[in-house]
Design goal:
The structure is a single chain. The chain is an alpha+beta fold. The protein has 19 helices and 37 strands. The protein folds into 6 domains: about 100 residues, Rossmann fold; about 160 residues, D-amino Acid Aminotransferase, Chain A, domain 1 (2-Layer Sandwich), CATH 3.30.470; about 70 residues, 2-Layer Sandwich (Dna Ligase, domain 1), CATH 3.30.1490.20; about 120 residues, D-amino Acid Aminotransferase, Chain A, domain 1, CATH 3.30.470.20; about 100 residues, no CATH class; about 70 residues, RNA polymerase II/Efflux pump adaptor protein, barrel-sandwich hybrid domain (OB fold (Dihydrolipoamide Acetyltransferase, E2P)), CATH 2.40.50.100. Helix 4 packs antiparallel against helix 5 and helix 12 packs antiparallel against helix 13. The radius of gyration is 26 Å and the shape is globular. The site of magnesium ion has 2 residues, from loops.
């Protein structure tokens, strides 16, 4: 085994790798950018090396600096995590040339699977079923459109260098082909520097089922069963599980055999995943699955496999890279129970899942697993850390395991309801709604489920009067006491019938709330809310919803929903003035990619006005109401969070 390894990554996956390294007695070196100087992975590692400024191109993608850091600290091997340099064969070559070991497959394996078109051609030869489609070199629009017609609509345009669901467009009708192609190419160019595409048949009622494989340097390859990642939005995984609901012995046998064939075709060593698309329009059938791509790395959702097999996949990665044989033979690997993973992201589900940023002033996960379940929280942040615009906005992965799917899903719902995040918009309520969705609970899933149920899944219920009262109470507490202090102890001295009352003003969205909070001598308190809310009677402090106070705000938690109230500073009028002006602001830093309206245009509600590229994804900014545009951002403009993108002419003036 290695004495010391360097982890060329950040966030939860860096922390995850460090944990297993420590278990094996392997010392660890972290690398970090400016933004991550005080990050959790830096704190956890035995040593840490600064590798550059915050943008990934200047730090986590700087292979040269990472290799230099490994050499300077005496690390023998580099673990790439996922993302960043994990699937970059040139980096693997450089690591090897420096006399270090890359904890992962060979550069040749990565190259063979790196481009989806070439990988599909290779798999076809190896006898693995591939999605019908065009995966040739020629890229003329006319040719691609002809191929699309031959394949038959609906088709899927995919960036051949794609990953993370980027550079992908479903097209239902030939008329939309050329615009979809331009969009996919633009996104692919920006994300991967390669705008070549393939065109595939869009599989009906598609289910994403993938097989975990593992190889060593002695020619042994095993599989660790499947994961179902059909719960997706915009082709990105949301909740993953193992095993796949409704899986039949015949399909499992066919899929795992195909996966082993794929891995053996490239003499695969290390952890890898063969992703398949499965036709779920009827019951799962052994001849209705096709190879989509291979991810030649550890996968984000690997913990669900670890939960159902009891295998530590990172431990296997280290052992195999250190020259050991696979710790288990195929017949020693068994499935037990059911596991789910929910990805908790800083994003605004109600606003088209726009990535969010912010400081996680309050971050609390369940202290203990829900009843009858095991739980793992994989995170790279702690209370007070920031979600910056530089990196993936994932906050944590909540992983549960129980004896069967129903119990595990119940545990997931409970764990989400006991998770508290304040300071940034998060998707916990959306995840909880999905975990409670009737079709999802029945295992009737496909990649379109979230889209079909989107309105219900992203709907945020209005806060209850109890939640508003709790917010008012927490706001009154304002700057005087920490969360542990009970402000009412000091007020309990007022043993009069007419008690001390404090007036508090709050804002929830557009709504202004006026509350009168009074303490009572018996240690209870009363919150009276102005109409339209009812006056509330005395509430027992202990029964009030949980809340967190953070600068300028209060967040109240009811189940997995966090209601965030603004506590206006009476001295600051600026934010109100800004709210009153009729304009659309950039929800996050980004690049104005395409402008589709001009000053003077009359536009209607919902009409796309411009495309903002942020976090490597394109987001369409649409008109919030009918109106006439007074000003609109210029194409190519780099905008920061809050920059006015579109100003409307004042309808009132
Ligand atoms: P996996 O295939 O391992 O489940 P995903 O498909 O979600 O992971 O993502 C594929 C890769 O893209 C991962 O390596 C992940 O790090 C990266 N990725 C995912 N989302 C983003 C994002 N918003 N920005 C940058 N990279 C991302
Ligand atoms: P990425 O590298 O971005 O992960 P994939 O090829 O793995 O790209 O596809 C991402 C997702 O897009 C899949 O998980 C699936 O939901 C959807 N998808 C891909 N190919 C097809 C297809 N042919 N038909 C239907 N859905 C597909
Ligand atoms: Mg994929």
């Amino acid at each position: 085994m290695f004495g010391k390894i360097l982890i060329a990554n950040r966030g939860e996956i860096a922390c995850r790798v460090i944990r297993t390294a420590r278990k094996l007695g392997v010392r660890t070196v972290a690398v970090y950018s400016d933004a991550d100087a005080r990050a959790l992975h830096v704190e956890m590692a035995d040593e840490a090396v600064h590798i550059g400024p915050s943008p990934v191109g200047d730090s986590y993608l700087r292979g040269d600096r990472i290799i230099a850091a490994a050499l300077a600290t005496g690390a023998e091997a580099i673990h790439p995590g996922y993302g960043f340099l994990s699937e970059n064969p040139d980096f693997v070559d450089q690591v090897t040339a420096a006399g270090l070991i890359f904890i992962g497959p060979s550069a040749a394996s990565i190259r063979a699977m790196g481009l989806k078109d070439a990988a599909k051609r290779l798999m076809e030869k190896a006898g693995v079923p591939v999605v019908p489609g065009y995966h040739g070199e020629a890229q003329e629009i006319v040719l691609l459109a002809t191929k699309a017609r031959e394949i038959g609509y609906p088709v899927l345009i995919k960036a051949r260098a794609g990953g993370g669901g980027k550079g992908m467009r479903r097209v239902d009708h030939p008329d939309d082909f050329s615009e979809a192609l331009s969009g996919a190419r633009r996104e692919a160019k920006a994300a991967f520097g390669d705008d070549r595409v393939l065109v595939e048949k869009y599989v009906d009622k598609p289910r994403h089922i993938e097989v975990q494989v593992f190889g060593d340097n002695f020619g042994n390859v095993v599989h660790l069963f499947e994961r179902d990642c059909s719960a997706q939005r915009r082709h990105q995984k949301v909740i993953e599980e193992a095993p796949a609901p409704g899986m039949t012995p015949a399909l499992r046998k066919a899929m795992t055999e195909a996966a082993l064939k794929a891995a053996k075709a490239i003499s695969y060593s290390g952890a890898g995943t063969i992703e398949f698309i499965v036709d779920g329009s009827e019951a799962l059938k052994a001849d209705r699955f096709w190879f989509m791509e291979m991810n030649t790395r550890l996968q984000v959702e690997h913990p669900v496999t670890e939960m159902v097999t009891g295998v530590d996949l990172v431990e296997w990665q280290l052992r195999v890279a250190a020259g050991e044989k696979l710790p288990k033979a195929q017949n020693e690997i068994a499935l037990a129970g059911h596991a789910f993973e929910a990805r908790i992201y800083a994003e605004d589900a109600a606003k088209g899942f726009l990535p969010a940023t912010g400081t996680l002033y309050h971050l609390k996960f369940p202290d203990t697993p829900p009843e009858d379940a095991a739980m793992r929280i994989e995170t790279g942040v702690r209370s007070g850390d920031a979600i910056s615009p530089f990196y993936d906005p994932m906050i944590a992965k909540l992983v549960v395991h129980a004896r069967d799917r129903t119990t595990a899903l119940g545990a997931l719902r409970k764990a989400l309801a006991r998770t508290e995040v304040a300071g940034s918009t998060v998707n916990t309520a959306f995840l909880a709604a999905l975990a409670a969705d009737a079709d999802f609970a029945a295992g009737d899933i496909d990649t379109g489920l979230i889209g079909r149920h989107q309105d219900a899944l992203v709907a945020v219920p209005a806060p209850s009067d109890e939640a508003i009262a709790a917010a008012a109470l927490a706001a009154t507490d304002a700057s005087t006491a920490g969360p542990a202090a009970d402000p009412w102890c000091s007020l309990a001295g007022y043993a009069h019938f007419h008690t001390l009352a404090r007036r508090t003003r709050l804002r929830y969205g557009e709504e202004n709330i006026l509350a009168r909070v009074s303490a009572r001598p018996d240690g209870r308190f009363q919150v009276a809310l102005e109409a339209p809310h009812d006056a509330l009677n005395a509430h027992d402090l202990r029964s009030m919803p949980r809340s967190a106070r953070w600068p300028g705000h209060v967040t109240v938690f009811e189940g997995a929903v966090g209601y965030t109230f603004t506590v206006p500073d009476p001295l600051a009028k600026a934010d109100e003035a800004a709210a009153a002006s009729d304009s659309l602001r950039a929800p996050m830093p980004g690049l104005v990619k395409l402008v589709r309206a001009a000053a003077g245009d009359a536009v209607i509600k919902g009409q796309p006005l411009l495309i903002l590229e942020a976090m490597k994804m394109e987001h369409t900014i649409a008109a919030p109401h009918d109106g006439v545009i007074a000003e609109i951002a210029a194409e190519g403009a780099q905008v920061s969070d809050g920059t006015v993108l579109v100003r409307f002419e004042d309808a009132r003036g």
